[in-house]
Amino acid sequence: MPKRIVILSGAGLSAESGLGTFRDKDGLWTKYDLAEVATPEGFAANPALVHGFYNARRANCLDARPNAAHAALAALQRQAEVTLVTQNVDDLLERAGARDVIHMHGQLNRALCAACGHRWDAPREMAPDDPCPACARPATRPDIVWFGEIPYHMAMIEAALAAAELFVSIGTSGEVYPAAGFVQEARAAGIPTLELNLEPSSGSALFTDARYGPATEIVPAWVAELGA
User: Fold this and answer.
1) Are 184 and 107 in contact (CB under 8 A)?
2) Does the keyword field hold NAD (predicted)?
3) N or C end: fewer C-beta atoms under 10 angstroms in the chain?
4) Are 13 and 69 in contact (CB under 8 A)?
5) Would you say 6 and 161 are in contact if contact means Cβ atoms under 8 Å apart?
6) Does residue 25 have a pLDDT over 70?
7) Distance CA 119, CA 131 (A)
8) Burial environment of residue 95 by CB neighbours within 10 A (0 to 12, 13 to 18, 19 or more)
9) DSSP per residue over 142-156, as a string?
10) Does the pLDDT of residue 64 top 70, yes or no?
């Protein structure tokens, strides 16, 4: 078993828990105008619409349960030095027992003050006039990285990739940067790379190995092969 593993996960990891994917034919971005609900400009123009969108996603997340793939990754983390990086904004990895998950796109269960930068645990429903607990200004927004914003924890992720012995991508489209570029960084460093996905991603040719199928089947099977 490799000593240091970096695992990037995307929407496909949580799809079987009932959380929607984004870029497939029935994904969320086919049903919503991302410029309206997932950009700073959209929030400035219609904060009520944006809060309504994320309130619905938060309720969906709170009612969801971790699946076998989440549980397998949490088990692997107990057996090896595993850095879990996720593009997902749900907390299903943590609820499955994973620790220190790096949420590069933020979290549904966290709130952010656009005025002072204070962060806190989000209630089930948020509204545009909610006051910030720190500065009291009505500038509350979801603590989500929107299009045009810089993903969180990039320096930490880069350091983990530089020290890794294996890079694994699970349930990602391979279309959203900078995460889509992690496999290229791993290849440049001579690190083996593995794609676990429902079907080949747009960057599948960059991986040295791949397994395809539902995450709840292929992720536990791969973890079992490692002996975790």
Assistant:
1) no
2) yes
3) N
4) yes
5) yes
6) no
7) 12
8) middle
9) EEE--TTSPPTTHHH
10) yes
29 annotated as ligand-binding: yes
Domains of the chain: 1-19+66-105+151-228 (3.40.50.1220), 20-63+107-144 (3.30.1600.10)
202 labeled binding residue: no
Could you list the active site residues? Answer: 105
Q: What is the mean pLDDT of residues 155-163?
A: 96
Q: What is the pTM of this model?
A: 0.92
User: 215: which residues sit within 8 A by CB, 6+ positions away?
Assistant: 12, 13, 15, 16, 67, 69, 170, 171, 196, 198
Q: Annotated binding residue at 17?
A: yes
Query: Looking up tokens 């123009």, which residue turns up?
Result: 45
d(C-alpha 228, C-alpha 226), whole Å: 6
Distance CA 21, CA 78 (A): 28
Q: Is 213 annotated as a binding residue?
A: no
Of the candidates 184, 216, 182, 181, which has an alpha carbon nearest to the alpha carbon of residue 197? 216
Q: Is 78 one of the annotated binding-site residues? A: no
List pLDDT tens digits, range 121-135.
999 999 999 999 999
